[in-house]
Predict the 3D structure of the following.
Amino acid sequence: MLYQRGLPQTVMVVISIIFLGFQLLRQPQRMPANVLHQKTKSSILVESIALILNGLTVSLSIAAGDNLAVNNIGLAYVSLLQLIRAIGPDANRQALRYHIDAMLVGMFGLILAAEGLPLMVIAREHSVGRPTIRAAASLCCSVSFAVLAPHEWIAQADDFLEHASEPTYEETCSWIDYCFTYSRARNLVAGANGIITIDQLDQLPFAYNPELLRRKFSDVRKTQPTTTRALLSLLRTQLLLCTTLGVFLASAQLISPMGLHRLLEYMQEPDEAIFQPWLWLAVICGGRIVQTAFQQAYSSYSRKLMAQVSAMLTAEVYQSALASRELHGDFLSADDTRSEEEPQSTASGIMENLISSDIQNITQMHDVLVCVTAIPAAAAAVVGLYQLVGWPCIVGIILALSGSPFESWVMEHVGHHEEKLQTAQDLRISLASEYLRSMKIIKYFGWEESAAKNIARARAAEQKHVTAIDIFSTALSLLADFFPILSLVTIFGLHVSVRKMPLTASTAYMTIQLLEIVKDCLVFLALVSVDFSKAMVSLRRLDKFFKSLTPLDTYPNRPAEIQNATFQRAAGADFHLRDINIKFIHGGLNVVTGDSGSGKSSLLLALLGEAVKQSGSVTRQQDTAYAPQTAWLQAGTIQDNILFHDTYNEKRYRNVVDACRLDVDFAEMQQGDQTVIGDGGFALSGGQRARVALARTLFSHASLLLLDDVFSALDTKTSFELWNGVFCSSLLQDRTVILVTQHAWVAHEANMTIVMDNGRVQSVTAKKGHVRKPKAIQPNANVMFTYLMYFGGPLFATLTVATCFIHTSAGICTNYWMSRWVEHSGDSGSSISYFLTRYIGLSYLTEAIDGVRMMAFSRGISVAANKLHMDMINALMAAPLSWFSEQAISTALNSLSGDMSTLDQSIYHSIVPVISDIIQCMLMMGAVASKFPVFILPALSLLILGWLIARMHEGVSHLLTELVSSSRAPVLSAFSEGLTGSMVIRATSSTTAIFHAKMTRLLCASSRAKHAQSNASQWLKFRMSILATVINVLAASLVLSQSGKMSAGFAGFCLSQATQLSDKVLALIFSFNNLSVVMHTVRLEEYEESFHHLLMLSDVQFQRVREYAQLAPEKDCVTKGSEYVPASWPKTGTVELRNVTVRYNPNGQDILKNISLRIEPGSRVAIVGRTGSGKSTLISSLLGFTKVVSGQILHDGVDLQAIPYKRLRNCISTIPQEAQLFQGTLASNLDPSETVPESELRDALDVCRRILRSANEAEATATGLTDSTTNNALIDRLTLSTMVKTKGENFSHGQRQVLSLCRVLIRRSKLVLLDEATSSMDERTDAGVQEALRTELSRAGSENRVLVTVAHRLQTIMDYDRVVVMGSGRILEVGSPNELIAKKGNFYDMVMHTGGKQIPKTDQLIDEKTG
């Protein structure tokens, strides 16, 4: 024998030496020099025990004589390796440990085979001597010790990352724990007591650090043309390991069928058997265990690899986006052929979809590895088929493969629709993102239904592609089943009719099992090809994203200066800054002014490097802080926003807060500067947001401050206070300030004034050495069942589930018919034809039913997804405005993107297997029990044990699923916030690194949760796999006990059913675990009084999408009192407040206090006061956005509490402080409900064009310029069909405000509200808007209309009928402008601060009072 000659042992030693030498030669190149090896006292003890055991084994082998002496070759080699490992360099210890353990396991396997197999031969006398048993037992102890001994910790340090001070359990656990049993998750599973936090989880192993992975990927990506090749290059070692494990896994699947085949042969002809039948039971059992071991290893490595890929790509996308110039529009569809009239996706929507949906698609690629690695096993199965049935298997395999062209054709269509689906999803997410982030304006105009309809239209377009993918996927699955069935019946037919061979039980069932392996490979290839197609689409989208990035222009670190420069706002944009020559005064105040749309904000972006520099040169200080025109704030406390990750300094912080006059606002807030604000600062007024953003820039240590119109949202007095506290203080000492503003008095105080016009510098006025002067201030249930109900009700749900029952029954009948056929294998040709035709009929009937089943579930899933989507959109639109200030909008967008993608497609592969596996387990157990009633008791006992283990795991699984979700949400929120405020973040050079570090911490926490979830899942899989193996062996033992009493055909039928039962029990647990994760995305959560009240159904499984669908709507959206509101209401714009006290939430503080005011029909009323005085709150109260604690608000004599909010807001026209346009046409922006005649829309647009044109011409006349044709040409091209980009990006802020005026003009409302609507306009445009409003209100039939204006520019309201002065939530003064000036009260002070002499019609009155 080769074993006795020592050849296998010698080969093992030679192979080990070759591989070890190769490893040691490569190690210095691969291992960094700063690797820290931790050699503890326990490792010395382990080495000592290993040496003792190995020495004992050598001694016992010598004592055993010739039988085991050949093992001394290997044992001596192992001893040598152990000695080298003990005294040699630490760098080689890990590699040597691998070879020692591999050699011990290999030699033990050789002894078992050499000494155990002869014992299983029936006719051979063989015995094993005691010396041999002792030596083998000693070697067994050595092997056991090797696989149970813990590993040493090898901690890799990194130049940029701190290395861990102590190892994680995973880095030191034993082989058997690391690869198979996952006992390290035992404490987590057993110790879950209803709550698990990140801190309770084991630390993330160093190799999984997201920042480490990102930097490696970033370096590789620079050398590779595509993301796919970069991933393959970086992860080639891990992918090779997973592929190798997958090949072993697929090969291990052949062991149990071989044991079954031999067992059936023994039962058919026991007299001719060579080996004992118990050998084949051991083969069946061993095969299942080996398969489980490789399944555990492959699943663990592949899942953790995909988690690494997810963290790596998320971090790289985030870092790349922050390092690049801001993206605009649908940057992934640069070559798209869609017309401009079609809605376009937005950059923010695409980016959010990239990290929530596309990266998820890429991480599903580990299933492709399983499919690829199954090909060698399928090839081995083909060889086995040839040995069983001969040449007919070749015909059968050709038939099985003949479906490939059809499958390829279907796959092309699937890939086409996948790309279209991603584009449609981008558009839907872009629309949802735009609407949700502009919910205030939508609710102001009562456009919730119109917005929901627009999203629904985008969803319908998306759903067409989902339906097409479902149809093609079903066709793909049917094709993958059709041809293997044709192959099977052809093989059987040729075998019995042409070759004239009997169809024995062993041949029939072995052929079925081997062909099943080939079929599974083909089916899995077809199904995985869909995931592969989706992943490739997502990888191509990532490639387009990376190619779309344009690095920021980096300028020399010198004082700010621009020389002969031309800038383009963005690639492809029409607007340019041309011939810019400015040398800003270093350490001074540089003011940029000009008309709306003249290029003021673009000049700041050019300095930041956000605009494309086409020519010229730019220099600026590297330390820059930027405050944009629309203040960007993070979700968190006000203090966190001001600090902006900087170190807290009490004195500096207080100086900044006082200078920005935020101390007054903090005093009126219950939580002060610890008040939590939502995304974008929803909880603050416009002026408060602007001052917090300014405070953030002042608290920074930047030497260059870029401030974009920080005064626009402030009243005059607060502006003066801000001027005195900030611009006339030491906070700006030695700091260069470039300020965009419309205020002339600010320009007069500047060291340099730059006037912009149509993208050019019109004039530059320098006043070096000018000292800024302060302005004088006068004193003053079951989840799955519930989900199935969304299929269309109980009837449709029942019919859908019934298709699974019928399909399983048909499959069992087909297998039973095969057993009948085998029993009559020796009958005549007519009998063969009889059994063959019916077997073909049953096979294809089963396949047809399977097609019906798939389409039934696809239809139900589509209906459920659409209903959940519409419920969610409608609930979000109906949610109170306060909800958007308390919740992160990015989380809702993630549900609309990633969760809806799961509900559209991924959930099919989760819910259908669970239902099918449950039904199959029941019917298969019944089939086996019909022949072996005794099987029921042990099988049920094992199933109950499995259920208890699963229940133990389920408790921690829910908690870990929650933890994974909750740890992922901050990542998405930080990603969204980072993109929104990217320009602010990039402006300060040190801030970018802070945000990168923050994202790394969040990704580490998310990876820790995923890591723990994977370990807990593998813990369950190992134990359930062992139980499934016991069930399989139990059935085989019962069949074997009936040898001679049962035909081989029925024995094969029972064994095949038992094998499938054990597989289905295992699959059921895995599928249910997967469903638990997927159904978590459809959380059932009832929101009544609190947004955190959860409805527990099916062991606290929650559905995340329905969480939003169950959001509590605005209270009293529909009231019983609405039936008493006359149909003709309102006839006038009369408004009356009777002792009104309001809050934003029932438990909050009073914002307006005891307000009494009556506004008569036909009047124009101005509301003035400092920021935070309650002006905007009063406007919000008139629209029903606040909680009336006491008193009444009457509109045309009807209490607002009795008016449905939708009807109320549709009867009021509002121009808010921050004008918002949505992507689409101008017509859709003016009238989303499409109820206004087109002629009226054109008339309103003509008014707006006249305002913009007159302002442009007036500016040209005043400045002596004659060329105003360019702007006029742009204005004249405005039509109802003009496309508006996302957020109105193709219009300036002032132009957007003017266009918002059209909405007021076409609604003809009795009550018109302007909330600081003209704050960002230049004076000429402002005057034009006011004139248009006066004209509109003086039209015939408009005598009962009311105009209420919140104003900061007092010049525009001096001809109003009444002025209401507010302060600290109370009315301080009410009267006409002349009356209030005569009183010399608060309003008089405000006029004086403005420069009363310059206000028309007041100079004479002021002179009289002051003279």
Remarks:
- Residues 926 and 936 are 8 Å apart (CA to CA).
- The longest helix spans residues 989-1041.
- The chain has a mean pLDDT of 76.
- The chain has 50 helices and 25 strands.
